[in-house]
Design brief:
The complex is a heterodimer of chains A (248) and B (302).
Chain A (H helix, E strand, L loop, with lengths): L2 H22 L2 H20 L2 H33 L2 H6 L5 H29 L5 H28 L3 H17 L12 H7 L3 H12 L7 H25 L6
Chain B lengths: L1 E12 L3 E12 L3 E5 L6 H8 L7 E6 L2 E2 L4 H5 L2 E4 L11 H11 L4 H14 L15 H14 L4 E5 L7 H16 L3 E6 L2 H7 L2 E6 L2 E7 H5 L6 E6 L13 E5 L2 E6 L2 H14 L4 E4 L2 H11 L4
Parallel strand pairs in B: 3-8, 3-9, 6-7, 7-8
Antiparallel strand pairs in B: 1-2, 1-4, 4-5, 9-10, 11-13, 11-14, 12-13
Chain lengths: 248, 302
């Protein structure tokens, strides 16, 4: 593998699928922001300062999750509708570079919204030198999990209408319903048990613990990290096995 | 030298549908080669196997001497593909499209920009260089894809029905681009079901039907495959088909009866008969489309 060539390919994909679409359709930036900001707005009307801080953590996690999930739509769009993936297959680019390029381009798309949320967190003194590592780690793991889920789903589903419907459903199930925007203690115990199965719950717990909005023991932190990593690695392996760069 | 070779290629989808049935083919380097066939004949399957997008069930395929199964990466360095019904990304300009596609294939930003500018100039796309693809007509969008493929300077371009759905003007734009690529020394392997397209731009032709290769060779060679020189077309509701059997080979296509005639004498006799019976008839030389229809009709099951 020629590293310089792969980096150029990665750069090209990020520009084609991330930077250029943002510049040409800035409305999408507002769309990206509207969902988390609306939730934060309502929470700020009815809830405490602590709840607003929790919602900001939730917004950051939600944006990373949605960015990863968006990969499934783009992969299918480029493969089925534009046939762009066919052109890529019959070219020197490697499948790993292709998928990584698309995944990072999704992140580029979400980055202005994530940046705004981080600025709001800084203004509320939530981000300190002590918390920055764990917040970053939980956000990155969350993105990796959602990206591997998006990649996996893109290998299973070829109809864009199904992908769009599934993306909307998953974004609710993974980033809205679980205790991401709100505290897990607000849920009844059976719902808490269920929510522990969802990786975003653990990402939120880790980030909230880092800014003293939740209290986790070292054991809890390790378990949360293991669950997040297990989800990510399992989905990535399954997706890699199922994905067909060259059709059989 | 041969650019593309297939030997007894077989493709069976999901263990049931036989898309290719022992296809053996040789395509010389530097020519425009057209693979003709009806919808579902196996054209795209063959192209996709040779372009390393699809694995064959059995048989061998070679592109520039490399095996399509075991040496796909070497082949991919030297080919570019325009898939059937592919479209450019709407939010990129023409120049960006070509440039970033080249970068995606590993060229540096400088090389990609140079190649993109050159090809845009060569294909007469300068006035659209900064236009977003969403604002282009169908023909120009297709031409952008051809530009992307040509700009790679790949030795072989695989074009799957590059003009399907285009108006006559747009088709000619794409033909010009393909012929230019061939002039530049690139081998063009294209599939089409437009006979006029194959006749107009190809050096060599092959016909595939129900997954089997029926014939291949030059256009002149194709015309020698049949002894018939002329054809007559008669509306099918104006006469019983059996009354025409003495004049030549008969095929019914839709609401027309086509009579293939051996020579001018046969056409004169048929003409006299039609005049005496007051039957409308038109005569014309045998075209590639006639050969194709005849070949396919003769190879229909049953």
């Amino acid at each position: 593998m020629n590293l310089a060539r792969e980096l150029r390919a990665l750069n090209a994909l990020i520009i084609m699928n991330g930077l250029k679409p943002i510049v040409r359709s800035p409305l999408w930036l507002i769309v990206e922001l509207s969902f988390p900001l609306t939730l934060i707005f309502f929470i700020s009307l009815y809830a405490s300062e602590k709840a607003v801080s929790e919602a900001l953590i939730g917004a950051a996690i939600s944006l990373m999750t949605l960015s990863g999930l968006a990969l499934q739509s783009d992969v299918v769009w480029l493969r089925v509708e534009l046939k762009f993936q066919d052109m890529a297959v019959a070219s020197p680019i490697s499948p790993v570079t292709y998928m990584l390029g698309l995944a990072i381009s999704e992140l580029v798309y979400s980055s202005p919204a994530i940046l705004l949320i981080i600025i709001l967190m800084i203004l509320r003194n939530m981000i300190t030198l002590g918390s920055i590592f764990m917040i970053s780690l939980s956000l990155i793991l969350c993105w990796l999990f959602a990206t591997s889920l998006g990649f996996y789903l893109s290998t299973k589903i070829t109809d864009l209408r199904h992908i769009w419907a599934l993306s909307s459903l998953l974004s609710v199930l993974i980033s809205m319903l679980p205790p991401v925007y709100y505290s897990i203690e607000l849920l009844p115990s059976w719902a808490q048990t269920v929510s522990y199965l969802i990786p975003t719950t653990h990402a939120a717990l880790l980030a909230k613990d880092a800014v003293n909005l939740a209290t986790l023991t070292t054991f809890d932190k390790v378990i949360s990290l293991i669950i997040l990593l297990a989800w990510t690695i399992t989905l990535t392996i399954i997706a890699a096995k199922r994905s067909t760069w060259r059709e059989k | 030298m041969e650019a593309v070779v297939s030997e007894d290629l077989v493709k069976i989808y999901e263990g049931r549908v036989k898309a290719l049935d022992s296809v053996s083919l040789r395509v010389k380097a530097g020519i425009i080669f057209s693979l003709l066939g009806r919808n579902g004949a196996g054209k795209t399957t063959l192209l996709r196997i040779m372009a390393t997008q699809l694995l064959p069930t059995s048989g061998r395929g070679y592109v520039l001497g490399y095996d399509v199964v075991s040496e796909a990466e070497k082949i991919r360095e030297n080919i570019a593909v325009i898939p059937q019904e592919s479209r450019p990304m709407y939010v990129l300009t023409v120049e960006e499209h070509v440039k970033y596609f080249l970068m995606m294939r590993g060229l540096s930003m400088y090389e990609a920009s140079q190649n993109a500018s050159r090809i845009i100039h060569e294909l007469g796309l300068e006035e659209y260089a900064d236009t977003l693809c969403m604002k282009l007509s169908g023909g120009l969008r297709r031409k952008v894809l051809v530009a992307m493929a040509m700009a790679t300077e790949a030795e072989i371009l695989f074009l799957d029905e590059p003009t399907t759905g285009l108006d006559p003007f747009s088709r000619r734009l794409v033909w010009d681009a393909i012929q230019r690529a061939s002039t530049n020394g690139q081998t063009i392997f294209l599939t089409t079901h437009y006979m006029d397209e194959a006749e107009k731009i190809s050096n060599e032709i092959a016909v595939i039907h129900n997954g089997r290769l029926l014939a291949s060779g030059s256009l002149e060679g194709f015309k020698k495959l049949t002894p018939y020189k002329l054809k007559a077309e008669i509306p099918s509701d104006s006469i019983e088909i059996d009354r025409l059997r003495d004049y030549g080979k008969i095929i019914k296509v839709g609401r027309r009866i086509i009579v293939y005639l051996l020579d001018r004498e046969a056409s004169r006799k048929l003409h006299d008969y039609c005049v005496s019976m007051k039957i409308p008839v038109t005569f014309s030389p045998i075209s590639l489309e006639d050969l194709f229809i005849k070949m396919v009709e003769e190879n229909e099951p049953g």
